[in-house]
Write the structure tokens for this entry.
Amino acid sequence: MSDNKQVTNPASGSATAVQEQQRAMLPPVDVFEDDSGITLLADMPGVPKEQLELKVEGDALLIEGGVQSHTPDGLEAIYAELRVPRYRRSFTLSRELDTTRIEANLKDGVLKLRIPKQAHAQPRRIAVTAG
């Protein structure tokens, strides 16, 4: 999947207009692994739950979110540091992970994903008997 794909919009005839819609920021992400799976933390300030989209296709995870800027009534932003209204990030997931049991939580602009390992990929203790 390419973030800078150029497509011509038949309505406007402008490849630039479509490219503006396709542009997205890469959210900073931390990934932690333990014996039972991975936890992914993505910083996505300004993204409400309704504008967040998570997709798993095969071994690919796609995270997308639209930023909502709140401008007070009657005012217009003449300068804004956030120019791209979308976050987008994709990851290739290990086959050891169980993508059917992903848990997602969005709180204070941080998306937390918990992706457990499949049962056969988790370490297990083997009991030893004496005698």
User: Anything to note?
Assistant: The radius of gyration is 20 Å. Helices lie at 15-22. Residues 1-20 have pLDDT under 50 and may be disordered. Strands lie at 29-34, 37-43, 52-57, 60-66, 86-92, 103-107, 110-116.
